[in-house]
Amino acid sequence: MNNILVTERSLCFNIDSSLYSNETLYKCFYWYGAQFIVSIENDQLSKSIHISLEQKSDIKEIIDANKTVEKIKNDLIDFKLRDIVLKETQNIRDLIVAKAFAFYQEDADPVTEISDPVGFEPVQLS
Predict the structure, then answer these.
(1) Which of 32, 79, 87, 98 places its Cα 20 to 30 Å from the Cα of 108?
(2) Radius of gyration of the chain (CA)
(3) Residue 76: in which H helix or E strand, if any?
(4) Residue 56: inside a domain, yes or no?
(5) Into how many domains does the chain fold?
(6) Spatial contact of 96 and 102, defined as CB atoms under 8 Å apart
(7) 109 pairs with which residues across the strands?
(8) Are the C-beta atoms of 14 and 8 separated by less than 8 Å?
């Protein structure tokens, strides 16, 4: 994050577009939507992404810029790590899903032993 501009009710800054994917940024800043009007603009010329957080009019308190910037930095790391883990485990998740929905052939004559811990012998009933 650089070029941080803080006013009483807004926070604007730029992020290097090579650090975070658009998906990561949208997932991260979605959670700020309750308190802020979020704007994410991609600037192709400077290869940066401009983020603007404007406090909603129904929220009366003045934003604490230091706490907000600290939270944003932590959230960006969190969502970046989630994205990395998602990509690294994609093959494993695909294999699990494929195995779960693979064709299953039921054994017509299963060889199992029926027993009951209280001594009931269901085989003797027939």
Answers:
(1) 98
(2) 27
(3) helix 65-88
(4) yes
(5) 1
(6) no
(7) none
(8) no
